[in-house]
Design a protein that fits this description.
Elements (H helix, E strand, L loop, with lengths): L2 H11 L5 H10 L35 E6 L13 E7 L5 E6 L5 H16 L5 E4 L8 H10 L2 E4 L9 H20 L7 H15 L9 H6 L14 E5 L12 E9 L6 E5 L5 E4 L2 E4 L2 H43 L1
Parallel strand pairs: 1-4, 4-5
Antiparallel strand pairs: 1-2, 2-3, 6-7, 6-10, 7-8, 8-9
GO molecular function: nucleic acid binding
InterPro entries: GAG-pre-integrase_dom (IPR025724), Integrase_cat-core (IPR001584), Retrotran_Ty1/copia-like (IPR039537), RNaseH-like_sf (IPR012337), RNaseH_sf (IPR036397), SH3_retrovirus (IPR057670)
Protein name: Gag-pol polyprotein
Length: 332
């Protein structure tokens, strides 16, 4: 594979990251597993970028958490979810996404996530900032904040810019997910899987503004490794090891690569035959399927154009002979 094709594949593996961002990652050696790529800025993709907000007013992790609930999706996800809870640490900008069936699930998920983060870092959350939505401004969540000694701040009504960190993060994740879905022409029911992998990638390849390290390194205190990354939506072949197979049955089933497991070292894939999303390590993923299809389409177009030119060259003389024959017959 030539270096330009390799660069294009890695661009898609990293969630259609901008070439400027990819060049910055390689220059700062912020990520483990990316080969030496030829990033010349000539690539163009349907993804878009926005200017980042450079302000950082915190000095440590868990000093401030930003929370927001995305508006309900019109299409229900494959797992029956409609809402996305986004939580961002102000200092590191490390992000978590949680998927909900309804707004009533928000309080319990927020409580569990806050307790988990405090145990992981051994530090207390100082402040939480959200809007005045009833999913955040309610007796249950306010009692939890009071019990844990957390100051709950609210943005002013109809002023989302006061909680702009998480609002911009919402837009970034949605745009990444949108590009990945449309690049592979996947059904919209996979939007939750696309948002989940977009968050996974974003944490590992985004360099914190004003620093030379990724969001992942600021939170985990080690460089991220992306050797296992694959292109979202690629065709994959799953080892059929969960059902009894006879001697001449196929040993694999075709599926779609959807992301990475959060709790184990495994991939999330959609099995085309069963219609289920499963987690497995016994899978072969073809990241080049779209590239091969594009090359075949281009070859077909070229051959069709050649055939059209041949017909255009051959037909006029045939028409002239036919006219001559018809004229003789009419004269006879």
């Amino acid at each position: 594979m030539i270096r330009s094709d390799q660069t294009w594949i890695w661009h898609k593996k990293l969630g259609h990251v901008s070439m400027r961002g990819l060049e910055k990652i390689i220059k700062n050696k912020a990520v483990v597993g990316i080969p030496d790529l030829n990033v010349n800025g000539n690539f163009f993709c349907g993804g878009s970028t926005h200017k980042s907000w450079k302000g950082c007013y915190t000095n440590r992790v868990l000093e401030l958490l930003h929370m927001d609930l995305m508006r309900p999706m019109k299409t229900e996800s494959h797992g029956g979810k409609r809402y996305v809870l986004v939580v961002v640490v102000d200092y590191s900008r490390y992000t978590w996404v949680c998927f909900l069936q309804g707004k009533t699930d928000t309080v319990e998920i927020c409580k569990n996530l806050c307790l988990k983060l405090q145990r992981e870092k051994g530090k207390k959350i100082t402040r939480i900032r959200s809007d005045h939505g009833k999913e955040f401004d309610n007796e249950g969540f306010n009692s939890f904040c009071l019990l844990e000694g957390i100051q709950h701040e609210f943005s002013a009504p109809i002023t989302p810019q006061q909680n702009g960190v998480v609002e911009r993060k919402n837009r970034t994740l949605q745009e990444m997910a949108c590009v990945m879905i449309h690049a592979k022409n996947l059904p919209m029911c996979f939007w939750a899987e696309a948002v989940n992998i977009a968050c996974h990638i974003h944490n590992r390849v985004t360099i914190r503004t004003g620093m030379t390290v990724t969001l992942y390194e600021l939170w985990k205190e080690r460089k991220p490794n992306v050797k296992y990354f694959h292109v979202f939506g690629s065709t994959c072949y799953i080892l059929a090891d969960r059902e009894y197979r006879q001697k001449w049955d196929a040993r694999s089933e075709q599926g779609i690569f959807l992301g990475y497991s959060q709790n184990s070292w495994a991939y999330r894939v959609f099995n085309n035959r069963s219609g289920n999303v499963i987690e497995t390590i016994n899978v072969v993923i073809n990241d080049l399927d779209s590239a091969v299809k594009q090359m075949n389409d281009e070859e077909d177009d070229t051959s069709n154009m050649s055939e059209a030119r041949i017909i255009c060259v051959i037909l006029p003389p045939l028409n002239l002979q036919l006219l001559t024959l018809l004229s003789r017959m009419s004269i006879g």
